[in-house]
Amino acid sequence: MSSAPPSVPLIELRRASKRFVKSLDLAAKIGNRLGADVREEVVHAVDHVNIVVFPGEVVGLVGESGCGKSTLGRLAAGLLTLTEGERYWRGTLLGKLASAQARKQQLKLQMIFQDPYASLNPRMRVIDIVGEAPVAHRLISPRQLREYVGVMLNRVGLDPTLMRRYPHQFSGGQRARIGIARALAVKPEFLVCDESVAALDVSIQAQVLNLFMDLKGALNLTYLFISHDLGVVRFLSDRVVVMYLGRIVETAPTSALFDAPSHPYTQALLAEVGRVEPKKRTYVPIKGEIPSPLDPPSGCHFHPRCPHVMPRCRERAPPLFDVGPGRASACWLSESAADAGRL
Amino acid sequence: MPEPVLVVEGLRTHFFTKQGVVKAVDDVSFTVGRGEVVGLVGESGSGKSMTGYSIMGLIDPPGRIVDGRILLNGVDLRALPEEGIRRIRGNRVAMIFQDPMMTLNPVLRIDTQMIEAIRAHERTGVAAARARARDAFARVGIPSPDVRLAAYPHQFSGGMRQRVAIAIALLNRPDLVIADEPTTALDVTIQGQILYEMQKLARETGTALMWITHDLSVIAGLADRVCVMYAGRIVEQGSAEAVLGSPRHPYTRGLLDSVPSNNRRGGRLAQIPGMTPSLLDLPPGCPFRERCSNAMPDCAISPEVTVTDDGARTIRCHHPLAPIADKAAVLAR
Description:
The complex is a heterodimer.
Chain A: E1 11-22, H1 26-33, E2 41-53, E3 58-62, H2 69-77, E4 84-89, E5 92-93, H3 99-106, E6 109-112, H4 126-136, H5 145-155, H6 172-184, E7 190-194, H7 202-219, E8 222-226, H8 230-236, E9 239-244, E10 247-253, H9 254-259, H10 264-271, H11 311-315, E11 321-324, E12 327-329, H12 333-342
Parallel strand pairs in A: 3-8, 3-9, 6-7, 7-8
Antiparallel strand pairs in A: 1-2, 1-4, 4-5, 9-10, 10-12, 11-12
Helix pairs in contact in A: 4-5, 4-6, 5-6
Chain B: E1 4-17, E2 20-33, E3 37-41, H1 48-56, E4 63-72, E5 75-76, H2 82-88, E6 93-96, H3 100-103, H4 110-119, H5 126-139, H6 145-149, H7 158-170, E7 176-180, H8 188-205, E8 208-213, H9 216-222, E9 225-230, E10 233-239, H10 240-245, H11 250-257, E11 306-308, E12 313-315, H12 327-332
Parallel strand pairs in B: 3-8, 3-9, 6-7, 7-8
Antiparallel strand pairs in B: 1-2, 1-4, 4-5, 9-10, 10-12, 11-12
């Protein structure tokens, strides 16, 4: 929790980038031959990001849609390969492991998806959804399947007698639990939860969030919790990472971030957080929309919407400056504060 | 209270399916005054959207409004023939949906659709209608309206598309706008912008607004009055301040307690046990009693709507919670 983190991170991404390239189709290639200048479309979904997660930590990853938080989560979970950069698991560089070893290591990282409808195969029974992976990876023998799945379902608060059913026979909250049971079935150490409670009603969401916290304690899990819901992130995480258009703009311990956000984008984001307070409020919008990642603004990506924009923001992207214990903010305004701290 | 634009009395919308009768809306009554923002909150399946659809006359078989009155400016919409409803729908009452792509025709330009919406209800020239469409665009904060009018829906971002849908809803200066989860699919900063525009519009034009959502924080910031729905019924109704600040129905209280930002970090979230009951052949009695911590044997008898707090609030509960005197304590909780 808030005690000093151990020195070896569970997972670390260094200068990680992911670019999605839409290659030219035939018509464009012919066009280029004839002198048209058609370029490949490149999306910098994640742009030179460093992120560490220590064992036992819950790191919240927030940002608006299109900011690259899901891509970063998938990179961390190993579902996508890095275009550039390195990925470490407990200090060892991944990608250089022998395939058998890599497969074993990969089981330690699991993902829980947003949509409890789309992420379960409608033609598979729960027993197979949850039990397929542990059998395939020889964690259990096929004979133990029934008993093992029963234990898993019990752990996530589902009745094991329902294991012969299909996903459509369950409610949204129950399906979310099936997704969690599936991830837990291969005994992971690190879970990436991508908007895992976003599709649930408030009262069901509370049940699933409690389940996450119970499991963390019981199984010694580490979470990267991706969400656009700042209320959920605030409740759950020890540390928060804020992303904007493929880059990390701020990272800080949860309470520090919510008490005093440093980056102008974080400030704007927190100002929009709805609070259930019986008080009428006047909405003061931040202007503009998140720009297209196909054509990001120059310099600091936030500058067209930033109330404190300076000429240099348009020219150079600010690096992450230290702005306090365990905090960093990618804003030129923080540069002087960082310098003062260094002296 | 401002003069009522919409009065709904004892509305019941039932769906007659092969499996049985689904009472999606079951004895719902409320009013919306001029310039007032009324929030209708509830979880999925609580009947909040069906209430909106019933008012709009959008209930298709096997669904049917079986009872109740829907008065718009004193005229009972249920007594009107289909042709009369058509004249009112999109004109005096407009609806904004969660997914703006459902409202917009993807193969028509925005201006075509907007001009059509105006000319369906009154005899206006195309040029005049276009001018009004441009005004509507400007009102909801769409930059360079002339260029954007000539665009197709897919050329807009999600937030802009929702603004277009709102602009279309406002074209004929309706007396009532029913908004069904219009900001749910949007990012928080974009949601803030839309709420800002809606708040301004309700204030400036006196349009009554019925805001259907599951998001309590939106309601808290926007609504004057709140109706909390559960299993097809309004279980608690009153001013936003009273209902959210000092809930008296156990369900409202449970809902508010399970919002993460109302809980202390690192602790356990308060949760309502169980899940929403199926509306199919719902047994008589209070539908919340299976999940309620205050449930008593007499909850097997359906509670009537009772007026409390000197007429400021109605509750549907045999054993309501005591009012909380100290509001500061609520906020600290």
